[in-house]
Every structure is written in structure tokens, then in C-alpha cells.
Inverse folding.
């Protein structure tokens, strides 16, 4: 017998599958398009027709069950599921699922059109199999698996990082050793203030000055590098390489009004739907958001994941829970208000394809749509521009650790699994994860395709958000500094310095910013009442003025540098005069964050 080459055999099978759907009444243009897409995406004609909505899944699998002479199941009671240790693999592939129904074991399968003839032959040869088989759609099986093991899965999700990488989990805010050191520093500081107040204040002044000056130098360096760097080139996917499956995670909490918009925006992503795995993640008790999601005409690539009410109600716990069912080798994270550029997945995938395995994450820039609403949104847009278009690209080019933004992150799934994924107990999971990836030898890059989102416009909403961010940064600093020598070795001296400037520097700048004004006023009062002032005090006063002015000027210059011409025309320049107020509000949020860190470290909702 002459054996056909493998490629020829595949083409023959594809042609047979295409003829099958033509015989079912699907129009030839649709079948031809599905066949071409199947060849390009390394899928099947069946999957392409389902993905494009040309076949309704429930009706189709009911019809396949009839062709095989098997019962069709449209709903599975989770209590019927035979719970096996490997059951969660059914979140990644289609069946078979074992049930215990009516006192006997039943195996639920998902048949395929290309294997229908072989399945019929097998059942004809062994008719006794029919009594133990049934058919269900992939969505029905996955829903049953999610529900059947929900309690065990959410417990594992909540505590796995703490069990496997205890030193990296924020479940315990402060270790005993850290508490002792902190108490010792506070006692020494109070003793110094009581015994030698002038020297104690001078020492505090010098430390704060170094933090402020270091942060300003980092921003100035990034600003200078942005001026001389070559233009960013958008990467393109190698032509011969098939597109991978891309998992997109969207965590929603009390955001029913945003559901139609985010569903529409995710649907607009330029990526084959047969290679998409979209998961809308919602707390099980958030009935309004769940109802809004269920009202949408979600395609077969979409799935609603309900997170059980257990443990901290945080975004990272929701992401980590849904990640258990991720089918893609690449993973993207978006928020409810995001509007990613349609080709963002294309650019990220191409960058991953061209990079080595150490490239674990790509950060897309975030742009603010409502920057003209008021001064809060305007300065927020300026801040985001400097961070995502100037500072983070500079850190990426120089191979430094990057505290990620909370959205529009793209990951290699293997890298996420290697570092333990998200920390369910860290309310600013993005900064923590970015630094943990770096400590494990991975690197983060950037892409040019932006995501548009809305800034908070009300002062209370801005304060709640900033409080959560700063509390999470404090958590992250405490976690990473549990083993300072090990952290220094894993990050390297340069990475360790950048980590201190980015995390500790941000916290110190927020908390101590008002003290800079206090120090300047004290020195000026001293000059007014004293004939002689030491050169050290004069130097510190000038450094204070430099730090205050430098903070505001670099804040404005980096944001302006990152803006497009359109954005520059939209920013009302008089809002820049309110930069000192913006920074003082950050200080208020910072002190509020410290209070909440002591009272409720893992609170992530409205605060």
C-alpha cells in the first residue's frame, strides 16, 4: 500500500471535513473561508465555523449526538461530577468528563466532525458502549468542572503562593524579624529626638534628601534617554509561525454598566477567534455584573468565571483563580474600563516570538481618554504619560526591574507559572509580580500599542485608588525586604538600587513631601533670626529647594515628553500650577495607606 505524505494526508482530511459541512448545508463561501482559516491557524474547519458564529454550539452538538445515537446533555449537576485529581485539565481541553448519574457511571464526550465516521464505526463494533456515553458541548463541560471543584480550587488559589513561596507572599504583612527591626528603629528615633533633637532631625533630613534626590536623578536620566533613543519600531509576527492561543483575563467587580463596552472592545481585538480564550471574571455574589455578562451575546471563545466567596476579595485572587483554566501560551490582563488598540495582541505576540524565553512580560502604555474633564484627570494623564512612555521604557531598555501597571500586561504563561502567578493577598499585584519576575531571572519589555482608559475625576475616587496603590507598594517593599541580602543578589546591585528608588522612594516621597516644605521654612526662619548658619544647613536648604522644584519639573517634563501632539493640545497648562496640590494629596493618600496597612492590609474594594 502506498502511504501518502503527512501533508497530503492532512489536506485529504481537511477536504473531507469541508465536504461534510457542505453536505450539512453550510454555504461554500463560508466553508472555503473556514478551511483557509483552519490552515492559517492550525485548527479545524469545525472550530473556525463555531468561532465565527456560523454554527450554534448547543444545536450543533445536539445534532452530533443524534448522528451517533447518543443522549445529549445540556446541563450537568456539579454534584454528579466524578472528582478526579486531574479534572482541571478539562478546563484546557474538550472532555471526556465522568459523571455518576442514576446509579451508574456515564462518560460525557465532545465529538468532532472529522472523527464522526470513525466514532460511528467504533460504536457499531461495540454497541455496549452506547449505554455509558453521552454528548455535551465544551461550554457545558467546563461550566460543570468550574462549579464541581470550586471550593477546593479557590482555597488552593488563595494559599498556594503562601505555601510554595512563603517568603514571596503578602499574606503575612510583617514578619517577626521585620517587626523587631521596625520597633528598634522607632525607639532609636524617639530616643534621638528626646536626647539630641537637632542631630536626629538633621539625620532624618539627610536621609529624606537622598531619597528625593535619587528619585529625581532617575527620572532625569529616563527623560534624557527618551530624547536620544531611536524611534520605537512595531514588531511583526514571523510569517511562517502560526499564532498561539491567547488567553485574555478581565476581572470585573461591581461594574455592570461597563460590561457592554468592554465586551465590544475585546471583540474588536484583531486576533482569530478560534485562537482566543477570553475569561470574564466575576465574584459569585456580584449578581448585577453577572446578569450584565449573561445578557451579552458572548461567542464560544468567551467564558464567565465565577470566583467563590472565600479569602480576600482582591483582583489578583480573581486573576489567579481564572488562570487555572487558561488555555493560551500567552496571557493578557485588562480592566473593565480599558480600550486596547485592536492590534495590541499582534504586536505583543510578535515581540514574544522574536525574544528569548527570558522575556516574560510586555507592558503596553496606558493613555487617558478623559484628561480634559478637570485638573485631577489632567494631571493623572500627565503622570501616566511620564510613567508608561518615558520611565518604564527606559527601565526596560536598561534591563532594570519594572513594577508593572495594573492592566495591559502580556505574559508568557510558562513564566507566570514558574514564579507562582499573582499574589492573592497583595492589593497592588502588578508591582509585586513585575519585581518577582525579575528576581527569578525574567525580564519585562514594552510595546507601542496603547490602551485607552479613564482616569478618576472625583477627589474621593482618586484618593481611594491612590491609597490602594500605595498600600500595595508598602506590602511589596515589606515582602521583598524580608531577605534583603538574597534580594540584593537576585536583583543585582543596579536592580536593587532601582527597586529602592521606585518602591521605597515613591513611598517616602509621598509620605515626606510636606516635610520638605517644613525643612525649608525652618531654615529660612533660622536665617532670619540667626546671624550665622552652618554650611551644612545652607546646603540642605538648597537641596530641599532643588528637590521640591525638581519633583514638579520632572513630573511635568516627563509627562509632556510622553504626550502626543494631540494630547499636548488638550492639556490645560494652567493645571500644571496645581502640581504641588497633587503631590500633597499623594502624601495624604500615603498616610491613609499606612493606617489601612495596619488595620486591614488586604482590603481591595472601596476604602
Amino acid at each position: 500500500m502506498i502511504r501518502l505524505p503527512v501533508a497530503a494526508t492532512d489536506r485529504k482530511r481537511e477536504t473531507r471535513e469541508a465536504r461534510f459541512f457542505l453536505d450539512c448545508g453550510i454555504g461554500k463561501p463560508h466553508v472555503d473561508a473556514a478551511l483557509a482559516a483552519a490552515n492559517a491557524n492550525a485548527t479545524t474547519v469545525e472550530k473556525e465555523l463555531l468561532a465565527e458564529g456560523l454554527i450554534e454550539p448547543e444545536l450543533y452538538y445536539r445534532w452530533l449526538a443524534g448522528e451517533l445515537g447518543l443522549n445529549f446533555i445540556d446541563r450537568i449537576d456539579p454534584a454528579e461530577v466524578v472528582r478526579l485529581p486531574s479534572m482541571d485539565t478539562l478546563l484546557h481541553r474538550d472532555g471526556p468528563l465522568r459523571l455518576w448519574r442514576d446509579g451508574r457511571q456515564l462518560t460525557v464526550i465532545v465529538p468532532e466532525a472529522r472523527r464522526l465516521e470513525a466514532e460511528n464505526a467504533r460504536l457499531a463494533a461495540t454497541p455496549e458502549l452506547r449505554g455509558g456515553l453521552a454528548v455535551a458541548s465544551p461550554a457545558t463541560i467546563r461550566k460543570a468542572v468550574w462549579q464541581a471543584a470550586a471550593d477546593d480550587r479557590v482555597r488552593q488559589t488563595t494559599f498556594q503562593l503562601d505555601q510554595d513561596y512563603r517568603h514571596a507572599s503578602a499574606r503575612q504583612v510583617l514578619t517577626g524579624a521585620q517587626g523587631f527591626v521596625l520597633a528598634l528603629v522607632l525607639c532609636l528615633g524617639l530616643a534621638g529626638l528626646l536626647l539630641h533633637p537637632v542631630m536626629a532631625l538633621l539625620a532624618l533630613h539627610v536621609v529624606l534628601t537622598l531619597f528625593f534626590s535619587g528619585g529625581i536623578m532617575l527620572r532625569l536620566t529616563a527623560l534624557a534617554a527618551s530624547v536620544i533613543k531611536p524611534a520605537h519600531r512595531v514588531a511583526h509576527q514571523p510569517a511562517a509561525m502560526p499564532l498561539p492561543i491567547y488567553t485574555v483575563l478581565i476581572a470585573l467587580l461591581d461594574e455592570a454598566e461597563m460590561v457592554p463596552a468592554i465586551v465590544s472592545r475585546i471583540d474588536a481585538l484583531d486576533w482569530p477567534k478560534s485562537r482566543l480564550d477570553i475569561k470574564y471574571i466575576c465574584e459569585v455574589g456580584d449578581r448585577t455584573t453577572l446578569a450584565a455578562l449573561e445578557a451579552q451575546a458572548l461567542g464560544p471563545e468567551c467564558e464567565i468565571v465565577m470566583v467563590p466567596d472565600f479569602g480576600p476579595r482582591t483582583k489578583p485572587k480573581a486573576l489567579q483563580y481564572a488562570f487555572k483554566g487558561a488555555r493560551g501560551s500567552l496571557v493578557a490582563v485588562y480592566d473593565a474600563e480599558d480600550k486596547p488598540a485592536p492590534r495590541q495582541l499582534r504586536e505583543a505576540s510578535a515581540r514574544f516570538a522574536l525574544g528569548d524565553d527570558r522575556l516574560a512580560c510586555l507592558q503596553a502604555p496606558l493613555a487617558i481618554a478623559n484628561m480634559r474633564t478637570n485638573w485631577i484627570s489632567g494631571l493623572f494623564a500627565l503622570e501616566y504619560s511620564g510613567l508608561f512612555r518615558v520611565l518604564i521604557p527606559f527601565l526596560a531598555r536598561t534591563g532594570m526591574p519594572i513594577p508593572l501597571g495594573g492592566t495591559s500586561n502580556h505574559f508568557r504563561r510558562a513564566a507566570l507559572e514558574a514564579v507562582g502567578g499573582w499574589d492573592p493577598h497583595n492589593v497592588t499585584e502588578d508591582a509585586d509580580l513585575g519585581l518577582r519576575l525579575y528576581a527569578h531571572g525574567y525580564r519585562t519589555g514594552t510595546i507601542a500599542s496603547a490602551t485607552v482608559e479613564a482616569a478618576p475625576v472625583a477627589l474621593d475616587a482618586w484618593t481611594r485608588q491612590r491609597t490602594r496603590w500605595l498600600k500595595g507598594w508598602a506590602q511589596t517593599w515589606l515582602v521583598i525586604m524580608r531577605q534583603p541580602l538574597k534580594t540584593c543578589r537576585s536583583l543585582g546591585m543596579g536592580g536593587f538600587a532601582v527597586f529602592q528608588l521606585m518602591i521605597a522612594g515613591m513611598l517616602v516621597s509621598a509620605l515626606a513631601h510636606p516635610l520638605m516644605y517644613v525643612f525649608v521654612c525652618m531654615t529660612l526662619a533660622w536665617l532670619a533670626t540667626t546671624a550665622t548658619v552652618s554650611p551644612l544647613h545652607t546646603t540642605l536648604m538648597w537641596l530641599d529647594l532643588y528637590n521640591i522644584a525638581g519633583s514638579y519639573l520632572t513630573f511635568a517634563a516627563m509627562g509632556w515628553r510622553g504626550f502626543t501632539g494631540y494630547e499636548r493640545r488638550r492639556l490645560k497648562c494652567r493645571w500644571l500650577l496645581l502640581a504641588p496640590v497633587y503631590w500633597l494629596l499623594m502624601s495624604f493618600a500615603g498616610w491613609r495607606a499606612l493606617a489601612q496597612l495596619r488595620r486591614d492590609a488586604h482590603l481591595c474594594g472601596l476604602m
Confidence is low (pLDDT under 50) at residues 1-10. Residues 216 and 323 are 38 Å apart (CA to CA). The first strand starts at residue 71 and ends at 72. Residues 6-148 form one domain.
